[in-house]
Amino acid sequence: MFTIKNFDELTNTELYAICAQRVAVFVVEQNCPYQDIDGLDPRCQHMFVMNNGEIDAYLRVFDRGTVDDHHSPRREGVASLGRIITGPKARGKGMGHQLVAAGIEHVRTTMPHVHTIFISAQEHLAETYYGKHGFERVSEVYLEDDIPHVDMELKL
Amino acid sequence: MFTAKKFSDLTVEELNAIYIARSKVFTVGQQLTVQEPDLADRQAVHFFSQNDAGEVVAYMRLIDLEKIEDDHYEQVSGAYALSRVAVLKTLRGQGMGRKLLDAAIQWVRDETEATKIIIDAQAYLRDSYYAPVGFVQVGEEFREAGLPHVKMILEL
């Protein structure tokens, strides 16, 4: 159901659709003018479902052992899931949970050295959404771009 | 110095670099929570300059108003529009914006049959940036994305 691609395998139409939907959700809908297109995407794998040229569900995965970014310092054996969204038209159908489950499964099956999956979750989703997949809080609540977040980890 | 490419001719790296630059200048720089990127990208010519690291440092998109099919652009025969005109903050004050505008106008002269260029300019740039190369204001100031704008036309 979900397509997963390395950055250089994305078509321009796919990258457009991904960036447009991420901005639609994180910048426009949440009224948060931050730099969503942050430069990390070339080092991520991108998991998504597209429907009529629009992204219904999306996340990006990266190996923290190979990435060193000011938001995501290097951590061996850790993979991050980020920018997790379902598009407005795709909500209420359980697709978000399928997406997170598929993301976890992708890490389990393709990154054998990874023992922990990390997310920086919007706090209101911590238990209702990520907790259902086994993620546990590992930090206090903090503000990122004025939105309460909490770090969560899933031990594989 | 400047590259002009249709959407489908861009590499995915170039498209990503364009979106990073636009995100920095408009979303973060001007604290705008509008939809960025938008669908017009797929019908535009992307006009940009990159530094040695591949970062897009100056950018605009050129839209053939005779052919455009998009909710945000009215069709006008014989006209091109310039939009999303952006120079990275680190490059400002060095004449880069002027070179970008001159080169884009020259591109429209050389590569198209258009007889005029239309821009919805941010009002603060009317006299300092667009008027000196011949753009003339038409109509009253209006607000778009919460910012004062003016429509300006350059007859070629």
Automatic annotation (TrEMBL), chain B:
<dbReference type="InterPro" id="IPR000182">
    <property type="entry name" value="GNAT_dom"/>
</dbReference>
<feature type="domain" description="N-acetyltransferase">
    <location>
        <begin position="5"/>
        <end position="156"/>
    </location>
</feature>
<dbReference type="GO" id="GO:0016747">
    <property type="term" value="F:acyltransferase activity, transferring groups other than amino-acyl groups"/>
</dbReference>
<dbReference type="Pfam" id="PF13673">
    <property type="entry name" value="Acetyltransf_10"/>
</dbReference>
<keyword id="KW-0808">Transferase</keyword>
<dbReference type="InterPro" id="IPR016181">
    <property type="entry name" value="Acyl_CoA_acyltransferase"/>
</dbReference>
<protein>
    <submittedName>
        <fullName>GNAT family N-acetyltransferase</fullName>
    </submittedName>
</protein>
